[in-house]
Amino acid sequence: MITPEVAAEVEALITRLRGPETITGLARDPYWPKWDSPWWWLTLLMELGEVRRIPREAIVAFATALRGHYLPHFPVHAHEVPPGVDTYRHVACHCALGTAYRVLAAWGAPVDLLLPGARAWYVRYQLEDGGLNCDEGAYTRPVRRSSVVSTLPVLEALLAAPGPLSPAEEAALDAGAAYLLERRLFRSLSRGGAAIDPAWLLPIFPRFYEYDVLRGARLVVRWALRRGKPLPEAAIAEALDALTGWATAGCRPRRWHPTAGSLVHQDGLGWAYVRPASTFPLLEAVSDPDRPNPWLQREWEGLRADLAALRAQGLLEARPLTV
Question: Crossing angle, helix 56-69 and helix 38-47, to 10 degrees?
């Protein structure tokens, strides 16, 4: 149940989005500063299920800024960066592009017209293991390994895409789901099955680019339903056990920590890295680790319903997963 405090802060943020700082901030930079700028306001409202309340003028300004601000590719080599381009501010990483795509799609905007190269980007930068990596160095190493954190938002964006996927997009989505399932949603193959990050077993809120096994499980189950693909129950069993214990204990989120600093624009001085990074009231109100989190609880209930649907369709394979 949403608290009166959170409801009031949602209203305050919607009002703020109608103000001139939204257009000005997006025109200056659609992403920075963390965490108090329109990018983070829009993303949090999406996570809260309030995305449709975002004013149209804010969505238009967001899409316009995305198209005009970023390079149309992900530079892997130095020669792919044009002169004068700030790689911190003018290069979109995979998880950022996936997140922006989802915001626009969830709002109901014609996302493929507004971001015409996004879906091709998701396919182009997929690595051999089925994932992606926002570290450009991963693309030039002898063994090219993906990142779970970089991969998940791209797969979510493909699932959110309006209309049918192309054969290449379907293949990319299937390969990405296989990448997560092969790792049991949280384990490292290169380290002999060790947990990539044990904290991932506890859901976090808000997520932005953070990962947890609830987010991963919801993705692979939705993928299996969308694609009519069998899902090996063994591949998600550890995650489900952890989530069941978490839900029984009260659905409290793992503590969300902002990064220490952020790029901030200072009049007359340009962009500088400033500590500490600022946040905003709604973000603070929904990230309390001492309260049950209704949005994560809703996600857990949705996962259980999707699992029941998968089982009813005979797509949940109750057998050991071979490696």
Answer: 120
Q: How far apart are CA 117 and CA 37, in angstroms?
A: 25
Angle at CA of residue 161, ends 187 and 303, nearest 5°: 45
- The 10s digit of each residue's pLDDT in 189-233 is 999 999 999 999 999 999 999 999 999 999 999 999 999 999 999
pLDDT tens readout for residues 270-312? 999 999 999 999 999 999 999 999 999 999 999 999 999 999 9
Cross-strand bridge partners of residue 4: none
Report the DSSP beta bridge partners of residue 147.
132
| Distance separating the N- and C-terminal Cα atoms of the chain | 42
Q: Are 136 and 76 in contact (CB under 8 A)?
A: yes
User: How many angstroms separate the CA atoms of 109 and 69, rounded?
Assistant: 19
Q: Which tokens hold the place of 19?
A: 């103000």
Of 299, 300, 259, which Cα lies nearest the Cα of 283? 259
pLDDT tens per residue, range 42-98:
999 999 999 999 999 999 999 999 999 999 999 999 999 999 999 999 999 999 999
Residue 21: how many CA atoms within 13 Å on its side-chain side?
Answer: 11
- pTM passes above 0.85: yes
Pairing outcome for strands 316-317 and 231-232: parallel
Q: Are 277 and 260 in contact (CB under 8 A)?
A: yes
Within 10 angstroms of residue 83's Cβ, the number of other Cβ atoms is: 4
